[in-house]
Amino acid sequence: MGNFRYKIAQFMIGRNGFDSFCQGLIMASIGLIIADIIIMLLKDIPGKLEDNGIFLASGIIKERQADIEAAAKEVGMQVDHVDEKGGWVVMQMSKVK
Predict the structure, then answer these.
(1) DSSP for residue 29
(2) Host H or E run for residue 57
(3) Taking the chain (97 residues) in consecutive chunks of 10 residues, what is each chunk's mean pLDDT?
(4) Domains of the chain, residue spans
(5) How far is Cα 64 from Cα 35, in angstroms, rounded to an integer?
(6) How far is CA 52 from each of CA 8, 21, 26, rounded to the nearest angstrom?
(7) Residue 78: CB atoms within 10 Å
(8) DSSP 54
């Protein structure tokens, strides 16, 4: 299953697509991606995100929110805001200041 998740992330980002995906003050939302993919991508976000940039991750099942919060903290990101509706979560993150 892990290799399959990696291939999904690889497909989504594409070759050299992550840099262009991450440029600018506001990050595009990553929606409806399984939590493991968001966790895998988080390690690259701080180096690509502008200092005042915002990273949004959505389509997260409530049960995995704590996993993503812990992974964000490990890479120097902080969760600024969380919205939840019907068991689904969207998280707004930024670099720790």
Answers:
(1) P
(2) strand 55-61
(3) 49 48 44 77 89 86 94 95 90 91
(4) 2-95
(5) 7
(6) 28, 16, 8
(7) 13
(8) B
Contact 53, 24 (CB under 8 A): yes
pTM, entire model:
0.67
Burial label for 28, CB within 10 Å (0-12, 13-18, 19+), is exposed
Q: Which DSSP category does 49 fall into?
A: S
The CATH fold assigned to 2-95 is Rossmann fold (3.40.50)
Token reading at 69? 């919060």
Take residue 4 and report the two structure tokens written for it.
């399959």
User: CB neighbours (10 Å) of residue 80?
Assistant: 11
Which tokens go with 49?
């995100």
